[in-house]
Design brief:
- The protein has 435 residues and is of the alpha/beta class.
- The chain folds into 2 domains: 3-196, Rossmann fold; 233-434, Rossmann fold.
- The protein has 18 helices and 14 strands.
- It has helices spanning 11-22, 34-41, 52-61, 71-75, 98-110, 127-138, 159-164, 176-186, 198-229, 233-241, 262-275, 281-305, 331-341, 354-357, 370-374, 387-390, 394-400, 415-420; strands at 3-7, 26-30, 65-68, 80-83, 115-119, 145-149, 169-172, 193-196, 312-316, 345-349, 364-367, 379-382, 405-408, 424-427.
- It has a 6-stranded parallel sheet, sandwiched between helices.
- It is globular and about 70 Å long.
- Uridine-5'-diphosphate-glucuronic acid binds at residues 122, 152-156, 209, 212, 216, 250-252, 254, 256-259, 261-262, 320-321.
Length: 435
């Protein structure tokens, strides 16, 4: 049984803690947020992630998982310390490493025995070396330690499955022996393990996220061209996806990417490039294409309604993707602000994210039922493709809308069926002008 400390109990840290515990390790999960830890001790999750509550409960009961705010308690007997704190964007796009620095400094001051410190947070290339310097200079007495980069590749909403069945594990270190020890922890996952140097491991993470974001922006650019030429981007994506060199995933055209990852990571990679005098022109275009989607959705709706002034618009979905409550850089926020700025009254419904969304969307009236929200609306906009929206009673909704206008930002409905039901329906990239 290995003893592991995980620092940060957010989306990554809590999933990592629960999954490593489930693999038979003893895990102490730590956070500086006292409320989060107090709640976790009572079995209350700080985030919504399918299956997480049960996994945490099972491992706490088995005595393999515990929670603390004390670094001394978390590090006592630990052989491995995973840093899984946030690395949000600074104003200039650079990753803000203050939480990583705090964690590294506190580890250094608290550790009493040799330790492998593992960066799970997404951190700019060179951060591993920087963390090693911080630890060395903050240690009261020299105690041996190594730094290993082990970037996380999980996606929210399917995080446990992604952790337990990863496509690969990437490890980077200047200390091969330390990397091998971290590799041992991941052996039960039976995925390919790549051991490389620190900087390369850090770069693999950014390059992977930037590539996925590029793939989405690519299909969104194709969607625009499809509209102009009368083709259907959904079928284009299917036709492309059968080519194994392309693959069918991440080719859903629509409102584009948001969340806590792609936006900040593409920005941070572009920042790293520019800082070294490189011109990241593809990354810049990928971001431009992406953020245009949000404006385009509102402009299209305005075209459909004539004007947005005084109109009531209902948003179906607020979270940046289905099966999460995460509202970080969610397209819904920009869309709601833009609608309100153009004079519309905004209503919103989301199965999970309503509570977290309230502070971010003060202009919106929240509803806990999509049918009630639709009553008297001039239009609906599909923002998040929750499964329950695919099964809505569209005939009932048609009858309760003031005007049967739907802008489908995630291409979840069939345009021909919507037309049959009498909707004025538009979406992205399917036939002339998306309609
Ligand atoms: P999060 O904001 O959900 O959680 C971070 C946690 O760290 C918070 O609970 C915070 O209180 C805690 N924290 C901050 N400073 C601390 C400190 N000094 N000591 C202890 N705890 C501290 O973040 P997240 O979404 O889990 O992301 C964490 C990192 O993982 C980021 O770098 C992110 O880019 C990366 N990542 C995230 C995902 C994802 O799907 N969310 C996936 C892969 C990688
Ligand atoms: C993403 C990556 O998929 C993970 O591998 C990575 O670990 C994580 O970022 C991270 O580094 O933090 P996540 O942001 O949770 O995970 O969600 P995704 O499923 O990748 O979706 C990201 C965004 O792209 C969402 O807004 C989604 O709606 C959008 N998207 C996704 C599309 O617009 N089209 C698609 O075809 C796929």
């Amino acid at each position: 049984m290995k003893q592991i400390c995980v620092i940060g109990v957010g989306y990554v840290g809590l999933v990592t803690s629960a999954c490593f515990a489930d693999l038979g390790n003893r895990v102490v999960a730590l956070d500086v947020n006292e409320q989060r830890i107090a709640n976790l001790k009572k079995g209350v999750m700080p985030i919504y992630e399918p299956g997480l509550e049960e996994l945490v409960e099972r491992n706490v009961k088995a005595g393999r998982l515990s929670f603390t705010t004390s670094y001394a308690e978390a590090l006592k007997g630990a052989q491995f310390a995973f840093i899984a704190v946030g690395t949000p964007s600074s104003v200039n796009g650079e990753a803000d490493l203050q939480y990583v620095a705090d964690a590294a400094r506190t580890i250094a001051r608290t550790m009493t025995a040799s330790l492998i410190i593992i960066n799970k947070s997404t951190v700019p290339v060179g951060t591993g070396d920087w963390v090693a310097d911080i630890v060395k200079s903050a240690q009261p007495e020299p105690i041996p330690f190594s730094v290993v980069s082990c970037p996380e590749f999980l996606s929210e909403g399917v995080a446990i499955g992604d952790f337990m069945q990863p496509h690969r594990t990437v490890l980077g270190s200047l200390d091969r022996e330390a990397a091998e020890q971290v590799a041992q922890l991941h052996l039960p996952l039976r995925a390919p393990i790549i051991i490389t140097d620190l900087r390369t491991a850090e770069m693999i993470k950014y390059a992977s996220n930037a590539f996925l974001a590029t793939k989405i922006s690519f299909i969104n650019e194709i969607a625009n061209i499809c509209e102009a030429l009368g083709a259907d981007v959904k079928e284009v994506a299917v036709g492309m996806g059968y080519d194994k060199r392309i693959g069918s995933l991440f080719l859903n055209a629509g409102l584009g990417w948001g969340g806590s990852c792609f936006p900040k990571d593409v920005k941070a990679l572009a920042f790293m490039a520019a800082e070294k005098g490189r011109h990241p022109q593809l990354l810049n275009a990928v971001m431009d294409i992406n953020y245009d989607r949000r404006k385009m959705a509102v402009t299209r709706l305005e075209e459909m309604l004539g004007s947005l002034d005084g109109k009531v618009v209902g948003l179906l979905g607020l979270a940046f993707k289905p099966n999460t409550d995460d509202m970080r850089d969610a397209p819904s926020v920009d869309i709601a602000q833009d609608l309100a700025a153009r004079g519309a009254a905004v209503r919103a419904y989301d199965p999970i994210a309503l509570e977290g969304a309230r502070a971010l969307l003060p202009e919106a009236t929240m509803f806990t039922d999509p049918y009630r929200m639709a009553e008297g609306c001039d239009a609906l906009v599909v923002v998040t493709e929750w499964n329950e929206f695919k099964q809505l009673d569209l005939e009932r909704i048609h009858g309760s809308l003031k005007r049967p206008v739907v802008f489908d930002g995630r291409n979840i409905y069939d345009p021909a069926y919507m037309e049959l039901l009498g909707y004025e329906y538009r979406c992205f990239g399917r036939g002339s002008d998306g309609g």
